[in-house]
UniProtKB/TrEMBL annotation:
GO terms for cellular component: plasma membrane. The keyword Membrane applies. It comes from the Eukaryota. This is Tetraspanin. The chain crosses the membrane at residues 12-37, 60-84, 91-115, 229-255. The keyword Lipid biosynthesis does not apply. InterPro entries: Tetraspanin/Peripherin, Tetraspanin_animals, Tetraspanin_EC2_sf. Gene3D superfamilies: Tetraspanin.
Amino acid sequence: MGLSCGARCAKGFLVTFNLIFWVSGCFIFAVGVYLLVDKEKITLFHLIADPDIGYALDQYLAWALVGIGGLVFFGGFCGCCGAIRENRCLLVTYFIFLFLIMGSELAVGILSVIFQNKTLTRLGELSTLLKEEYGIDGQLTEAFDFTQTKFNCCGIFGPQDYEGSAWMTQDLGKGDAVAKTCCILTNGDHLDPKPLNSSWCQSDKPTESSQFRHEEGCLHKLEDFLRDITILFVAIGCGAAALEIFGMIFSICLCKEV
């Protein structure tokens, strides 16, 4: 017996939906890979990494996006085959995949908010980390230098974070008051910073240093970075989950008719 008009419409919508579904899967996969391989993101993640696990919590969510993108490819294949061949078993499998993917995407969005709040409470501790590890731990030193260069800031709360630091007491800066990346640079390279005026940048006279040194701390800039990442995860998680609802509806409608 042929399919009813409504079932044929559901079949057509399901095939069309799967094309959109595959595109969304490619996008989710690409975002996850981008967050894991982009050098700037990796460097900033070093700065906010959880000390107990050695990675930023958002990096685990990025891996989750990569996995979800892979599931979308397989689930979309089941949906297309089930719709074209009008196979109830494949349609049921497709429905289950959509349900699991939707749950995973919602979990990513919810966890990103939880992780953001957890990380934000630790950002103030970076001032202590700078005092103890800047100039000693190469990876953290590069992360601080990159942050200061990228966001045009100095220290976490300000240049005063360098006072009494191991970097200063051990004379790792060779007499400098702040890191060179705190200065206004001519090249913008955190690995080889070239201050516009090094003498005045390192001056202990505020009237001189304020003209060639960044006086604002990096705390608020890092908070904005974390919020932007969270918004990205929430938008992907909730937006893609809403998309799955349509696929579930179409698959149920078609499954009842075949």
